[in-house]
Amino acid sequence: MKKVITYGTFDLLHTGHINILRRAKELGDYLIVAISADEFNAIKGKEAYYSFEQRKAILEAIRYVDEVIPERNWAQKVEDVQKHDIDVFVMGDDWTGKFDFLKEYCEVVYLPRTVGISTTKIKKDLNMT
Ligand code: C2G
Description:
Elements: E1 3-8, H1 15-26, E2 30-36, H2 38-44, H3 52-60, E3 67-71, H4 77-83, E4 88-92, E5 107-111, H5 119-125
Parallel strand pairs: 1-2, 1-4, 2-3, 4-5
[cytidine-5'-phosphate] glycerylphosphoric acid ester binds at residues 7-10, 16-17, 20, 36, 46, 71, 91-92, 94, 113-114, 117-118.
């Protein structure tokens, strides 16, 4: 079984998220999504509208997603890849190069972002700060 993993906040889920989840799943048979815990979002300088539990429940309802785990820090990726026996690590290309150190452990794939949509844009358009 070819296992894929990807990481993110996945707040206010939108088609950009769905597009990367769909393409990530197409690269294997089993997709794990590590979503940022609320405390880690604070470290990332992001404040999610939905809590970790809410974002986890939403992601678990998506047909492409097989498992959701918490992302608690920047340093857990090597351990995650080894622990979950990951074959492919996937991120949007806004992260190109940032995770090349994982090439020692698995395939690293950066996929083009979906243009014109982001959680930040949604908040701005809805006049949420
Ligand atoms: N994404 C995308 N197209 C968009 C918006 C997001 O392809 N229009 C992708 C991002 O490139 C990322 C994933 O969707 O791969 C999740 O995006 P975010 O929730 O913004 O995640 P981010 O804050 O980039 O966190 O350790 C990695 C971090 O947790 C990534």
